Please model this.
Amino acid sequence: MKKKSLKRAFIKSLPVMVGYIVLGIGFGILLRNAGYGVLWAFAMSLFIFGGSMQYVGVGLLAGGATVINTIITTIMVNARHLFYSISMINRYKGAGKYKPYMIFALTDETYSLLCDEEVPDDIDVNLYRFLVSLFNHIYWIIGGVLGNLIGAVLPFSADGVAFSMTALFVAAFTEQWLSSKNHLPAITGVICTTVSLLLFGKDNFLIPAMLMITAVLAIAGRKEVAES
Model:
């Protein structure tokens, strides 16, 4: 069962491996250009594992941001995790020793792999979810370290590198749209985000957008339950 769980988790995580190594390299290059070496890249990738937050973190480090500003920025950038992680509570309930790490390592891409996954009976579901999370984490660390080393050896312009995170979210959105028959969450996200952006501006739209999305989906969910 352990070998089957390992094999399935590795195969399932391969698409994320490609993206994470490329994105991690971008982060490592940005960090090197900001004057921070490979140990910083390794430590941030290991302990933060925040994707977009690590890209933002490069600017915070280089700009000498205060602890308070860093905390507020982190909450703003990662607020979406508070919302989509709720749907994983029941799935993680019986995870035992794996649970703390799985909570820490739940990224957008890991969530997309695990949220609708039906695991066969001959697979240890908790071990499988743990391994998917672990593999994705390892890919991100490898990418960050490689990028930092590349940035130290080769002259590399970091212009436009940060856009790679935007490209990742667009790709994830497209994949979810094509693979799902229910487009209500995607349409809700686009509309609510656009309205929030127009009302609150680019610096303050994230949390209001998340609250709007949550409210709409909660109402839609109750209506669906009532009709069933």
